[in-house]
Amino acid sequence: MRRTVELLWGQAMSDSVNGLELGLGVQPDLVYRTMLRRPRWRLSDLVRELGWDDGGTRDVVGALRAEGFVVSSADDPDAIRAVEPCVALPALAAKRMRGPTAGTCVPKAAAVERFVTWHERAAEWSGEHRHPGGLDEVAAVVERLVAGVMHEVTMLVPTYVPGSFEFATQVAEAVLRRGASFRAIWCAEFTMAPPVLAHARWLGQRGCAPRAAQVVPTRAVVMDGTVAVLLDDIEAPRVLRGARAVESLRKLASGLWATSVEVGEVARQARIDVPRQRYEVVLRLLAEGLTDDAVANRIGVSVRTVRNDVASAMAGLDARSRFQAGVRAAQLGLL
């Protein structure tokens, strides 16, 4: 099994996808690909695997962490893990397409699509032969699932675990970037912990303030009402598929949301204008079939502004037509 996974990874690494095409430098690219081979790494193990010195490895890991490719492990306080490419690469693309340096080192859409496909093929094959053995493995499964969400993600969180995906900004950003809604229902007993409050404020500023309930009876993630990850047993989490299989969890989530309240301080937080290119929204609405006029009415701007946004998106995506821009945005996971 391991040999097959390594062969798949080898093809991913040699399938004409290099670090520059992914928006990464040579060293960050190598470290990231290496980290994707295991659920978590201690720095000493990564140093040994790469054959690098401690300082150089630490610097590259720090750069990857700053770009959202690496986060702390939820299973080992001394370890780190790689964020799934289907979440990390679209976030990098969106970041590189905005701001004063817009268009610089934007990941190439086709390269991102190939890389994500090969990685997930290897991950799925490996997953068929073993069950996730901790929160880091579960996080990878959840990240791959939320990358394809269309409408809504609801998280039921009965307990706080530092580093858990339930409190990861990357997961919430991936959902919001796709135009879906993000709902989190936390058990009230841990909502005053400083890291939890900080995350609650972050969510509230983005229009998706979490709610607190006195009792959250199960730990789960419900996506679009048709897919769920049930974590009653971390050693053997279950992925449920189909509206019928997910129905009881969906009803539980809806009931808890209706009877819960916004986390204390968040209700008093003013929503901020989170930097995000309007053209991401414009592209999504155009992909849904809306005309320029309809998009302008929906977001409250002029038709001329919509057309300027489309032009900016085409430039950022290096696209020659609206159709090509839509294809590349989809390949990058921005739609």
Would you mind describing this structure in some detail?
50% of the residues lie in helices and 12% in strands. It is of the alpha+beta class and 335 residues long. It folds into 3 domains: 2-127, Winged helix-like DNA-binding domain superfamily/Winged helix DNA-binding domain (Arc Repressor Mutant, subunit A, Orthogonal Bundle), CATH 1.10.10.10; 150-268, Endonuclease, Chain A (2-Layer Sandwich), CATH 3.30.870.10; 278-331, Winged helix-like DNA-binding domain superfamily/Winged helix DNA-binding domain (Arc Repressor Mutant, subunit A). A 7-stranded mixed beta sheet has the order 9-8-7-4-5-6-10, with helices on both faces. Strand 2 and strand 3 (79-82) form a beta hairpin. The longest helix has 19 residues, at 109-127. The radius of gyration is 20 Å and the shape is globular.
Sketch the topology as an H/E string, one letter per element.
HHEHHEEHHHEHEHEEEEHEHHHH
Shape: globular
Number of helices, where a helix is a run of at least 4 consecutive DSSP H or I residues? 14
Strand order of the main beta sheet, please?
Answer: 9-8-7-4-5-6-10
CATH class label of the largest domain: Mainly Alpha
% residues in beta strands = 5-15%
SS elements, strand count:
10
**CATH architecture classification of the largest domain:** Orthogonal Bundle
Largest sheet: 7 strands, mixed
CATH topology of the largest domain: Arc Repressor Mutant, subunit A
CATH superfamily of the largest domain: Winged helix-like DNA-binding domain superfamily/Winged helix DNA-binding domain
Would you identify the regions where 5 or more consecutive residues have pLDDT less than 50?
A: none
* Helix/strand/pairing category: alpha+beta
Number of domains: 3
For the termini, the CA-CA separation is: 34 Å
Radius of gyration: 20 Å
